Amino acid sequence: MECTARNMEKPDPTALTDLVRQAQAGNMSAQNELIVAYQARLAGFVYAMLGRSAPVDDLCQDVLIKMLRGLPRLLEPSLFEPWFFRLARNACIDHTRRERWRRMFVFFDPATDDPPVFVDTEKRDRVEALLALLQRLSARDRTLLLMAQEGLSLAEMARATGTTTTTIKTRLHRARERLRELYEKRT
User: Fold this and answer.
1) How far apart are CA 108 and CA 52, in angstroms?
2) What pLDDT is recorded for position 110?
3) Cβ–Cβ under 8 Å, residues 74 and 20
4) What integer pLDDT is reported at residue 106 of this predicted model?
5) Does 23 share its domain with 84?
6) What range does the domain containing 50 cover?
7) Relative orientation angle of helices 13-24 and 80-105, to the nearest 10 degrees
8) Tell me: the pLDDT tens digits for 86-144?
9) What CATH number does residue 139 fall under?
10) Is the pTM for the entire model greater than 0.85?
């Protein structure tokens, strides 16, 4: 299961609920459709959370496996998307924690860093600046911004984070303002 960058639109909610129910029932074709429908969005979410591409494929695979194993325990199929992105967020947080501990005990190895990718320098600079600024935000703010970018509704984000829509709206506004402030200070 490799996460690839495809342009996939957000699935229709009714069709998604039906697909999740089929996948929960053990339909391998439906499970495969879920993987295909979400792998690109998952890869983008993980990349933005971590700020580097080296662990993206491995973490995507872990999240997709957790998704397949956890589907039978998902009580409300209509809540699949917030549940799925919560799995992804938790996997990123766990990975970051493990990396901190690993860095304490393992020497730096430049061979594990991401190789340079040649793109338009102006575009690359903006993307790198945005990723660097995202990393300066708290994990909670970064998660909310990425969930909003993925098209999750306020209600879905509230369910995924265990808060209210009012709280999400406030936190999301503050996160956007903080990101804007950081970006303006950069120039």
Assistant:
1) 16
2) 54
3) yes
4) 52
5) yes
6) 1-114
7) 70
8) 999 999 888 888 777 665 555 555 555 444 445 566 766 777 777 888 888 888 888 88
9) 1.10.10.10
10) no
Tell me whether residue 26 is exposed, middle or buried, using C-beta atoms within 10 angstroms of its C-beta: 0 to 12, 13 to 18, 19 or more: exposed
Across the chain, mean pLDDT equals 81
Main-chain dihedrals φ then ψ at residue 152, nearest 5 degrees: -70, 145
Give the residue from 114, 138, 163 where a domain finishes.
Answer: 114
Rounded CA separation 26/31 (Å): 8
Residue with tokens 């909670």: 140
DSSP 80-100: HHHHHHHHHHHHHHHHHHHHH
Residue 147 confidence (pLDDT): 85
C-alpha R_g of the chain: 17
**Residues 86, 105 within the same domain:** yes
Give the whole-angstrom CA distance, residue 71 versus residue 25: 9
State pLDDT tens for residues 38-79.
999 999 888 888 877 778 888 999 999 999 999 999 999 999
Q: What is the CATH number of the domain that holds 63?
A: 1.10.1740.10
| Tokens at 111, concatenated | 């061979």
